[in-house]
């Protein structure tokens, strides 16, 4: 199960005691108020929102990249860049994401993977 990003806004009423300075010297050299006997009197939920979590991954056996929204697969393609572009079209910031340049040639990444795998096997 994927954990989703949720936010809740609360309004709280807090009751506490503050010791006042005894003299001017103590007032000058204090570092703010020291709260004592702090207790929450009331707490009310005033807002709730969900922030969508996007992520992508690839299935090496199926040779597919896929996009997840809150853990559910919503888009897949053989092209890495197509998945990145789709994620960007949904409002996620993808400006810093590396592009493979495989929009026109969706087999580009998978060919490189196969060649790399073959080269490693030859070295063994």
Task: Describe the fold and architecture.
There is one protein chain. β3 and β4 form a beta hairpin. This protein has a 3-stranded antiparallel sheet, covered by helices on one side. It has a two-stranded antiparallel ribbon with strand order 1-2. The chain contains 3 helices and 5 strands, in the order βαββββαα. The model has no long low-confidence stretch (mean pLDDT about 90). The chain has about 120 residues and is α+β, with helices and mostly antiparallel strands. It is elongated and about 85 Å long. It folds into 2 domains: about 35 residues, no CATH class; about 55 residues, no CATH class.
- Provide the gyration radius in Å: 28 Å
Fraction in helix? 25-40%
Q: How would a crystallographer describe the biggest sheet?
A: 3 strands, antiparallel
Tally of helical segments = 3
CA(first)-CA(last) distance = 39 Å
Average pLDDT? 89
Spell the H/E element sequence. EHEEEEHH
Number of strands: 5
Residue fraction in strands: 35-45%
Oligomer: single chain
Write the layout of secondary structure elements.
Blueprint: E1 5-18, H1 24-28, E2 35-51, E3 54-59, E4 64-69, E5 72-77, H2 80-89, H3 108-123
Antiparallel strand pairs: 1-2, 3-4, 4-5
Key features of this structure:
three-stranded antiparallel sheet; 25% helix; alpha+beta; 2 domains; two-stranded antiparallel sheet; 124 residues
Characterize this entry briefly:
The protein has helices at residues 24-28, 80-89, 108-123; strands at 5-18, 35-51, 54-59, 64-69, 72-77. With 124 residues, it is an alpha+beta fold. The longest helix has 16 residues, at 108-123.
């Amino acid at each position: 199960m994927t954990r989703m990003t949720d936010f809740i806004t609360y309004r709280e009423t807090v009751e506490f005691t503050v010791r006042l300075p005894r003299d001017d010297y103590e007032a000058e050299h204090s570092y703010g108020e020291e709260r004592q006997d702090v207790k929450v009197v009331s707490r009310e939920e005033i807002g709730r929102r969900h922030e969508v979590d996007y992520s992508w991954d690839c299935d090496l056996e199926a040779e597919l990249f896929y996009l997840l929204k809150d853990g559910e697969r919503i888009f897949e393609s053989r092209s890495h860049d197509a998945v990145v572009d789709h994620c960007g079209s949904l409002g996620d910031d993808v400006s810093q994401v590396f592009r493979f340049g495989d929009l026109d040639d969706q087999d580009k990444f998978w060919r490189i993977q196969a060649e790399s795998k073959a080269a490693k096997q030859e070295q063994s």
